TrEMBL record:
Name of this protein: Transcription termination/antitermination protein NusG
Signal as UniProt keyword: no
SUPFAM superfamilies: N-utilization substance G protein NusG, N-terminal domain (SSF82679), Translation proteins SH3-like domain (SSF50104)
GO cellular component assignments: cytosol
Similarity annotation: Belongs to the NusG family.
Domain of life: Bacteria
One Pfam family this sequence matches: KOW
Biological function: Participates in transcription elongation, termination and antitermination.
InterPro entries reported for this sequence: KOW (IPR005824), NGN-like_dom (IPR006645), NGN_dom_sf (IPR036735), NusG-like (IPR043425), Transcrpt_antiterm_NusG (IPR001062), Translation_prot_SH3-like_sf (IPR008991)
Keywords: Transcription, Transcription antitermination, Transcription regulation, Transcription termination
PANTHER family named in the record: RHO-INTERACTING TRANSCRIPTION TERMINATION FACTOR NUSG, TRANSCRIPTION ANTITERMINATION PROTEIN RFAH
Length: 170
């Protein structure tokens, strides 16, 4: 018997602004299993780029529970949660294979792992540093895991070196 057969599944809870970690902690304290996938990014503070971890899906956390049990209703009164994503009167289930695939791409703490195989010609998004959120094309990969990418800047192509851990496939 699978979790799905017993009525247990993954659902999506909408968060209050800037409450991802608070809501995740409070849900776990109440006995719910949660999944908050995180990705590396950067934040510009006083002209310096500081590496940070940010939620992959800002404003949402995955919550695992049995909908038939009824105990899930206490999620609505959990500090940091706005509501459960619903269609009609009941929360909408997230397909199990979507959450499973996301979990496979993350470490045990929920941090997104860098892509395993990059090759020239791949489209990537830069996750951190001064070019965060730029989309680029891989030009070359050096043996020291430095990746040369081509980016469109001011109407021309520019070649930039970045670490492989800073890239996410598009």
């Amino acid at each position: 018997m699978t979790y799905h057969d017993r009525g247990e599944s993954w659902f999506l809870a909408q968060l209050k602004p800037n409450c991802a970690h608070i809501a995740d902690r409070n849900l776990r304290r109440q006995g719910f299993r949660t999944f908050l996938p995180m990705e590396e990014g950067s934040q510009n503070r006083k002209g310096r780029f500081i590496p940070t971890l940010r939620p992959m899906f800002p404003g949402y956390v995955f919550v695992f529970f049995d909908i038939a049990g009824g105990l899930w209703r206490k999620i609505y009164s959990t500090y940091g949660i706005t509501r459960l994503v619903s269609f009609g009167n009941e929360p909408a289930m997230v397909p199990l294979d979507i959450v499973s695939q996301l979990m496979l791409r993350c470490d045990s703490a929920g941090k997104l792992l860098p892509p395993k195989l990059l090759k020239p010609g791949d489209q990537v998004r830069i996750a951190s540093g001064p070019f965060a959120d730029f989309v680029a094309t891989i030009d070359d990969i050096a043996p020291d895991r430095r990746v040369w990418v081509l980016m469109e800047i001011m109407g021309g192509q520019t070649r930039v070196a970045v670490g492989a851990d800073q890239l996410r496939t598009v």
